[in-house]
Write a structure and sequence with these properties.
Layout: E1 6-16, E2 23-29, E3 35-39, H1 42-52, H2 62-73, E4 75-86, E5 89-98, E6 101-107, H3 109-119, E7 123-126, H4 127-136, E8 152-153, H5 176-184
């Protein structure tokens, strides 16, 4: 998939779904006009939060380890691409470079995002995914509860009804002040889990 048919996006923040307490990573475009929420697991949310806040862990998280392996082997993370929204599940690819060879690996979006943040690699979302998400969500102006109306990624924990996750929310039209309020209220401790 070419970058011509994709939109570069950035991690706008992490939040907890108020209905299920499941973590949500919110991607946004450069203008802040487009928001794409993806429900993820707590371990992945912790990893993304630690990368955003540049928190060093006593022991490396899985994504830290993977990034270190890439560095040691001379593998460069070129970009990630969220390629598909199918049956309310997002799919992504991790695009790597080893010398002049490109390697494309299937990935969950949260894993790809966690690695991209560590490698300072760009995050792209296919235009078709944004169009499907736009059509699939309602214009209620509220963050939909995961498991009922929100799209998730394959392998996420805490799903209530995997066949009924998407309804109709156009996140492009959600009040930006409301998003800012949600994102500003986040506490990194919300994403820490007990061992």
């Amino acid at each position: 998939m070419s970058e011509d048919t994709a939109v570069e996006m950035f991690v706008g923040g992490l939040l907890l779904d108020p209905h299920t307490q499941a973590p949500v990573v919110v991607l946004k475009d450069e203008t802040g006009e487009i928001h794409l929420p993806i429900w993820i697991g707590i371990a992945e949310a912790t990893s993304i939060a630690s990368a955003i806040k540049q928190v060093s862990m006593a022991r490396p998280l899985t994504h830290d380890l993977m990034h270190e392996v890439f560095l040691e082997l001379g593998v460069r993370v070129e970009r990630i691409m969220i390629t598909e929204l199918k049956d309310s599940t997002y799919f992504a690819e991790l695009i790597l470079a080893v010398g002049d060879k490109a390697i494309i690996l299937d990935s969950r979006p949260s894993d790809a995002i966690a690695i991209a943040l560590r490698a300072a690699a760009p995050i792209f979302v296919a235009q078709q995914v944004l169009e499907k998400a736009k059509v699939a969500f309602s214009s209620s102006g509220q963050l939909p509860p995961q498991g009922k109306e929100g799209a998730t990624e394959e392998g996420s924990q805490g799903e209530e009804d995997p066949n009924a996750r998407i309804q109709n929310t156009d996140f492009k039209n959600i009040d930006k002040d409301r998003w800012q309020e949600i994102l500003n209220a986040l506490d990194p401790d919300d994403f820490k889990y007990k061992m």
